[in-house]
Amino acid sequence: MSLNTLVRQAVETIRLHWKGGADARGVGIRLVTELDRVPDVAGEPTALLEVLSALLLNAEDALPAGGGMIAITTWVSERWAHCAIADSGMGMSEDVRARAIEPFFTTKGSGRKGLGLSFAYGIIRRHRGEIEIATAEGRGTTVTFRLPREPYRQGAHA
Ligand SMILES: Nc1ncnc2c1ncn2[C@@H]1O[C@H](COP(=O)(O)OP(=O)(O)O)[C@@H](O)[C@H]1O
Ligand SMILES: [Mg+2]
Question: Of 118, 94, 93, which is closest to residue 104 (Cα–Cα)?
Answer without folding.
Answer: 118
